[in-house]
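Q: What structure does this chain adopt?
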Amino acid sequence: MGIYKDLQDKRVMITGAASGIGLATAQRFAEEGARVFVVDYNEKATAQTMQENPQFAGCCCGDVSKEADVLTAFRKMETELGGIDVLISNAGISIRKDFVDISYKQWRKVLDINLGGMFLCAREAARRMKAKKSGVILMTASTNGTEGHRWYTDYNASKAGVILLTKSMALELAPDVRVNCVCPGYVLTPMQKAEYTPEMLAKVNEGIPMKRHAEPSEIGALYAFLASEEAKYITGADIRIDGGETAGLY
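A:
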């Protein structure tokens, strides 16, 4: 039984939901009794996710940086669930590389997925939510979008864009639709484990006041709160969840 009774039967689309933060968030919303619609580009991972999580209500494979794929996902959700109440736009990628070695092809790919995909999904959700005068749009930004970080210039720029996309949308869509973004710090996701050696992870933990990475489920818990009526006065916010990493010099 979930904590937030108003999330019961809410129709929730989550992108990038076949692993990491997206999967943990989908599982949390399912625990709250929501009808979860999973979107991910990886067909094999999506099929496995649906098999392992029969509580999810539906799915669609697609690339959030492609407008046609996004439109297909929303139409499929409408057909199967009858509409959308909550969007959690989470799909994203990062590639660790020196700035001078980033190709324009890589730059475009990261920006198209991390920022373009957020725009496309949020726009489609907003159009539907404005029509029914209710809804919540939540997006995954990052603490990397709030300050400079080495080796992730393209990623950092994309996440800074997500934060201002959030704030601008919140102004336009209020008071009927709330829009917020979550800015995680280091999260122990499969993507993080693929990019960092155990030694690198240990070194990062030393620089975090809480001395550890976040668990994906902790990000999912924040999303559940923000989607609920408990957060009904929160909009236009970029909320950090980083173990104190960006609180100041540590």
